[in-house]
Amino acid sequence: MQVNAWEERINIPTYKIGEPDRNPMFLEKRVYQGSSGVVYPHAVIDKVFDEKTDKEYIALYLENEYLKVMILPELGGRIQMAYDKTNDYHFIYYNSVIKPALVGLAGPWISGGIEFNWPQHHRPSTFDATDYTIEENADGSKTIWVNEYEIMFRTKCALGFTLYPDRAYIELHAKLYNRTPFPQTFLWWANPAVAVDEHYQSVFPPDVNAVFDHGKRDVSSFPIATGTYYKVDYSPGTDISRYTNMPVPTSYMAVNSEYNFVGGCHHQKKAGMLHIANHHVSPGKKQWTWGCG
Predict the structure, then answer these.
(1) Nearest to 119, CA basis, from 209, 198, 39, 185
(2) 234-277 residue pLDDT tens
(3) What is the pTM of this model?
(4) Which residues contact 88 (CB under 8 A, 6 or more apart)?
(5) How many angstroms separate the CA atoms of 223 and 168, rounded?
């Protein structure tokens, strides 16, 4: 089957947000997830509402015989839906509403899908619109590009999502540009959400035998924890790769793996999600949970 790529307008139930603060918020001393909470020159939004209405969005689609993917360029160019047609499985959590919480660096942030974060933390512009274009490639694949000029460090990021004929994976290419005469640092990470229950398990490479909390404040053996982690006693031995075994919200990060993958598996549905990247370029591997079920 050939790859189809198209643009469509859809309605999604959406909870409203407040107006941006007209006054600059410098926030030099604010700590955000253990680091700087500086947000200027972004405007800060500090209000979300409980009422929802249908809102029209531009949706960009990629589809072949295996996968159907939906991207929302008006919400940071995030993947909102990634659906496996072969087994009727949303291998990325598909949130059917847009319900912001005040988690983002500049305010609104939403769960679900795949959020692409740069140059700092949960992307200051995660709730802002991007440019986009659809590209046809000579090999029959098609690419959707989303593009942003960010205003904190004046850098540029173009992110391409490619789907190939007869292949059951999404390929991502990021092109980062420094438009200034000075060196600029950045974080780059993708934040995919999955729906978990008692059948879901984290898949880390076999050379990962320890995991760390943020900033290495705590450490645990992995996958079998034998001590206290996040104030939970896992002795004499608990498999913390299984989400159902972790009673509190928990993060764990791996370092120094020689493998290129990290992911998760739903054993009952015999399906899951795997992220593949060159570990020399993209060394980080992290999973975290807000709860099970």
Answers:
(1) 185
(2) 999 999 999 999 999 999 899 889 999 999 999 999 999 999 99
(3) 0.94
(4) none
(5) 29
